[in-house]
Amino acid sequence: xxxxxKIEIEHVKRSRLPEVDxxxxxxxxxxxxxxxxxxxxxGSWGGxxxxxxxxxxxxxxxxxxxxxxxxxxxxxxxxxxxxxxxxFRPLDNLKRLNISAERMCMPxxxxxxxxxxxxxxxxxxxxxxxxQEGASLYIRPFMFSADEYIGIRPSQDFTFMIILSPAGAYxxxxxxxxxxTHYTRAVQGGTGYAKAAGNYGGSIYPSKLAxxxxxxxxxxxxGKAHQYIEESGTMNVxxxxxxxxxxxALSDSILAGITRDSVLKLARHWGMNxxxxxxxxxxxxxxxxxxxxxxxxxxxxxxxxAHIEVIGHEGVDHRLPPVEKxxxxxxxxxxxxxxxxxxxxxxxxxxxxx
Length: 354
Ligand SMILES: *Cc1c(COP(=O)(O)O)cnc(C)c1O
Fold this sequence. Notes:
B_amino_transII, 9-stranded mixed sheet, D-amino Acid Aminotransferase, Chain A, domain 1, 2 domains, 28% strand, amino-acid biosynthesis
């Protein structure tokens, strides 16, 4: 049994809210007035506190900076018509944070602490949840080693934080993706299934090369022979081939997306054929050439569904059917958005009100 948390709150002297243009919010640039912070010291979590958002003192010798001992999560809250914050599947984010923590030799965070910290922070900055059509509050929990020691060994001290960023409507124009067959995001036995900092740092350069070639994003393939489709690096990928929804089966080199899981649950609920299995690059390219790939999309918290317009492979661009014709992706997008905002029933109990 854990007793309820005592969370100290230090309020800002003056809110920055009046300065924010909620009709023009670029992703990840504006942060709310407050942040949550907690310390792991001598084997237990404590010091949960809410303080004004701002810079934090960090030792220059912290392993988080030198060795990437740092993990994060991403989720969203929406404004309900009755003024509550509706948070989408936060317990699943916590579960995943703790899976990442174990892989990175970091302490797990108990559910009570996570939920109490999150709800107190959201309550403190409730006015920052945008109510504009399509807008949301992006929630970024993260944890990093706070030791002052540059030897490589399991750390002893850690910091857990949550910051909040109001996000405008995400108009996802269809994306052009390139199947990456040289660089690797994650390998068997590696950290790809963890939301661990280093996975992203290493993917920026290959992504930039693809952008220089006119693509928006990569589809990563397996690190061994680049023969199998993995995921997109911030999104999982899915295809409707003939009439079946196909997505790569989870493995230790693929991040288990909560959007991915939500899409699969809805598809099965609707009686659609669903296959989670290996998809080879060859199978996909053949199906593209035969016109059997009716839909392709990325699934992740930022966009929910990002339609894929073009898939590039070894210099050849394969164009997909127009977005208006994509029955499944459009339907599942609408349904998920409606569940998240509480305008449709939530049959799976995904939304937590705070
Ligand atoms: C976060 C993330 C996703 C998407 O996960 P969601 O829980 O749906 O947001 C997919 N792939 C990677 C590598 C990610 O980091």
